[in-house]
Design a protein that fits this description.
alpha/beta
Length: about 525
Amino acid sequence: MTNNKTPKWFKFFAIAMLVVGIFFHLFNLHNKVYWHDEVYTSIRAAGFTRDEIDKELFQNRIIPATELQKYQRPKLGSTAEDTIKSLALEDPQHPPLYFLIARFWMQTFGSSLTASRVLPLLFSLMGLPLMYALGLELFASPIVAILATVLLALSPFDILFAQTARQYSLLTTLVIGSSFTLLQALRLPTLRNWSLYALSSALGFYTHPFFGLTTIAHTVYVLLLKVSFQKIQAERKFYRIDYKSIKQFFLAIASSLVLFSPWIVVLVTNYERAAATTSWTKSKEEFLYLIKLWILSFSSLLLDLDFGFNNIWTYVSRTLVIAVIGLGIYQVCHRTSKATWLFIITTIFVPFLLLAVPDFLLGGKRSAVSRYLISCYPGIQLAVAYLLGTHIIQGRKLWQGIMVLLSAGAIASCTVSGFSETWWNKDLSYHNAEVARYINSSPSPKVISEIGDDFTNTGELISLSYLLQDNVSLVLLSQPPQLENVTSLLLGNTEPFLFRPSGQFIKKLRSEQGQLVEALKPGRLWQLKKQ
C-alpha cells in the first residue's frame, strides 16, 4: 500500500468523527439501567458476597428500596482482600484486576452510577491510540491507522460496553495493546519489547479468562508465519520468525502465565462454582439462532439499529454490513503481505472458531454472546479500515460515500441507543425500566420478592432500586416464603406487586390468596389483587 499524503478533507472528517465518538462515550451515562452484572461489579468491588447479602435481606423484612444501594458502597472495615475473596468464592471465572481498580475508583470518586461508568469509559478511550499504533504497525499507512481508530471510536458495540461498569472495555484495550506489543517484539526482539508483551498478556489474563483466545490466536500466528524474514508490503519492517523468536514468544507467554498462576489456582480450586455460574452458556440452541446472533454481534461494530430479533429488516441491513466486513477481509488477504493478512485472519477466526466449534458439536451458545467475541473485533475493524483506506487513497468517490454511510449508520445507532433507557446488552435487566414505571405509577406500592428460582433476584432487585421512587417499599421473604407475611400486606391501602417470584411461590399464592395477575410478563412482574 503506497503511503500517500493524507488528504486535508480526510483529516477534518476523521477529527470530526473522533469528536462525535468521544461525545457518545460520554452521553447519557447516568440514565441507562444499571443492570445485573454492573450491580455485581459494585458488590464485588465493595467487598460484599451475595451470600451475606441474601442472609441479611431475605428475612421477612420490609425496607425502603433505596436501602439496597448500601451494598453498592464499600463495606465498612473491608479491604481489597475482601474484594478478592468475594470473587474467589462466588465468581472465580472473573479475575480480580478490574474489580480491584473499581474498588480504588469507588473509594476515590464515590459509587454513583456516573462515577462507576466513567472508569470503563476511560479504559475504552485508552484503546484509541493503541488502535492507531496497531494499524500503523500492520499497514504502514496513516490513513488506515486513522480509519481504524475512527471505527473503534464510533463503534456502537464498543460505546455500549464503554458505558458499562464491567471489564470488557479494559479487555478490548488489552487485546489491542497485546497485539501491538507482539508485532513490535517480532520486529525488534529486545528484552523490553518481549517484557511489554508478557506484561500486557498477564494484565489480559487478570482481566478476563477469554483473553486466552487472543493468546491462542497469537500462538497460531507465530507458528504459521514460518518464513525467517517477512516483509510488510511497501514498508521496511521485518518480522523475525525463527526458532529464537518462537522461543522468546513462548517464554513471554510462560512468564505471563506464571504471573497469572495465583488465579489459576483459584480457578482450579473453585472449578465447580465457576462451572455452575457459567452453565447458562451450555444450553443448546438451534443453529439458525446462533447464525442470527453471529450476524448481530459482528455487525454491531458498525451498525446497531434494532427492528426486532425476528424482523427481516434487521438482517437485511446487518447483512450489508457483514458483506463490507467480508470484502475487507478479502482485500487484506489479496493485497497485503503474509505477515499482515495472516495476523488479521488468525485474530478474527481463531477466537471465533474456538467458541463456535464446541457450540456446534457439543451444544451451547458461548459464541452467541457478543462480549465473548471481543478478541475477534479489532481484526475486523482493521480489515474494514484497510478496505476503505485503500480506496480513499486512490480517490474513489464511491468508497468515500460508503465510508460516510457507514459513519452515519454508526452515529444513528449510537443516537438511538444513547437516548434509550435500556438496550440489548442489559440482558436480564432489559425490562427493569418498564417494571419500575409500572410500580411507580401506583400510589401505595409494595414489592414482594424472594430469592427466586435462579438466584438472580438479588442483583435484579438492586438494579431496580435505582429506578424506584422513594415511597416504594420492598417486602423480602425468607425461604420458603411464608404466606402469612403476604396476608398482612393486604390490610390497609396498599397495592402489592410480586417481582420475579419462584414457580413454587406462584402456585401457593394462586391457591391460597387473592387473584394473581401478570402485570408485565417480560419483566416478570405480577400484581396481587385483593378478593
